[in-house]
Design brief:
The structure is a single chain. 72% of the residues lie in helices and 0% in strands. The protein is mainly α and 116 residues long. This is Large ribosomal subunit protein bL20c.
Length: 116
Amino acid sequence: MTRIKRGYIARRRRTKMRFFVSGFRGAHSKVTQTIIQQRIRALFSAHRDRGRKKRDFRRLWITRINAAIRWELVSYRYSTLIHNMYQKQLLLNRKILAQIAILNKNCLYMISNAIF
């Protein structure tokens, strides 16, 4: 019986995987079995951290707003500010409030004074 050479499909699949992990170090970018494991791990981490990033940024914005309103002129805290904003139906999201707190504190104080 004649010898049959393997096709190119499996090799093409492995080459695609190698492009995905080309920046990884050591065997993580060279050995096929390790490449498969690292690819799964990388995709899992990317999926998990997309949600994590949103959570982390929200925490950062809340911290910045709280620090800005406690620092000077205003003598109350973040939770009171947000509660009063919702009561007055002044709907600014936390990202915008944090940018205002960093770039223009006087504007943040004007907003807080308009609420109370």
